[in-house]
Structure formats: structure tokens, C-alpha cells
Amino acid sequence: MVLAVILSGIGPVLVRNSPVDPAATAFWRLAIALPIALFLIRRSVLLPARSMVWAAVAGLCLAGDLCFWNAALMRTTILEGTVLVMVYPLIAAIANYLIFKERITKRVAIGGLIAFGGLLLMVAGADSSGGSSLSGDLMAVAAAFFYTGSLLISARLCRIYDTQIVSFWVILWAAVGCLPVAMLEQRSLPVTQHDWLYVIAYAVLTLVSYNLFNRGLKIVSTGLASLMGYGQPVVATILGYFFLAETPTLDGILGSFVIVIGLVLATRQPKGKPDEKPDEKPLAPAE
């Protein structure tokens, strides 16, 4: 799980330097990874019919996440783009309450309010002359909503079925979802050999990090996985500073600290209590 987070932190820098536009970057990293994902499956490639539908929904949600997030990274700073998308644990907590009737604890509520305050601080300080923008920040928040849907469904599927099979179908439908948006962009196709090598390398990195993350979901609770994910903005910001000469604004740094503090408070496990057991209840139609 930790290695998956570190590898994912490289993604924002690769999106910025990609030879194709944001949605096309998302499509090619997924489409090229598909044959490899299929090769890694050692058993039947199919899931039960109902689970196939849920895998499709998770993949389309992932497509929305990648399209919005990649577009956000081209409009705002890497720090703001990666931190704002990390509000998904709070969105997941609210979604679990509305869908699965899971109670929102006082700890989650307080942490959520703190994180929301940091989000307002970051968005209010957005300045296009400094590399950030309000539109980019809002796109990152929209990506968080889509990622929440993908994570909630994928986590349940991975605890029931082979992670390689789940990964294949989620990636397949994510590629399908990204394709229409990619076709509307100007730079939708890699041209030179360097371009193809770039997107192929990004695809391999995507597949490795995604499979590591899904394998971790088998034994790590969703809340703890979210907590580990807070390291991604740190990795992405450090790389952005050294490779893109991108220095975050003071409001961006302060807002990021506030958001991370709130998210850590909201998702940390209380002392003396073991980590929650993964819910292996199969997906029902109401879910």
C-alpha cells in the first residue's frame, strides 16, 4: 500500500509533461495497461453478472476521476490538485451514511469541518498568476467525488474476488469512459517514438500501483488505506518542486496542512481499538 502511494505520487508530474492532452493521457495509460492486466489473470476472466455491472460503474467513476484530475493538474498547482482530491475519505464517510446507514462519528465530523476550512483557505487563495486557479481546484474536488464512487465499489469487489480480475474490468471500463473525452482533444494520439515510450511507461506504472493498492485493500481497511494516501500530495509536491520548478503559494501550503490535519483526525483509528475488519458482504442490488 505504501509503495502504491509512492508510485501514484509520480503521476501528477507525468501528467504535466505528457505528450498528449489530459483525457488522452488517462485513456492511453489505461488502454496500454489492459493487455498486461489480462495476461496477469490466471483464472477465468469473468465475474458474476451483477458484479460485472458494479465493476463497470467503478470503472466509469474512475474515468471521471482521471479526466477531471488530469485537467485540474494542467490548471492548478500539483500541491493543490493532489491535496484537494484527497477529500474523498470525507465524501466516502458521508456516502456510507446515506447508502449503507453507517453512523458518522464525532471524530469524523470534527475532522471534516477542519478539512473543509482548509479547503476554503486553499480555494480562496487561488491565484492564476501563481500557477493555481479556482477552476482547477474545483475540478480536483469533482475528481474526488468520482474517485469515492470507484473506491467504495472496488474495495468491496476486491475483498470478494481476485484483485487481478477486478482490476482488469475496472481499467477496461475506465478506458471506455475516457475515450470520448480524449477524442475531443487536440493532442489525442502519441506521434513520435518518444511519445509512445512515455505513455507506455506511464501505463506500466499505473498498472503496478493500481494492483498494489487493490491487493492492499484485501487486508487493509478502507479508512487506513485513505490515511496512507495522504502521503501522495507530499511525494507529488516534492517532485513538482524539483522537476517543474513549481513553488506552491503560502495559502496553498497552509490550506494543505489544515486539510491533511482534518483528514488524519477524521480517519485515524482510536487508540486501543483494532483496525476494522474488511466487509466481505457481497454487493446487493440496493448497493
From TrEMBL:
Residues 1-123, 135-267 form the EamA domain. The chain crosses the membrane at residues 25-41, 53-72, 78-100, 107-126, 138-158, 165-184, 196-213, 225-244, 250-267. InterPro entries: EamA_dom, EmrE-like. It comes from the Bacteria. Pfam families: EamA. Signal peptide: none annotated. Gene3D superfamilies: 1.10.3730.20. Keywords: Membrane, Transmembrane, Transmembrane helix. This is DMT family transporter.
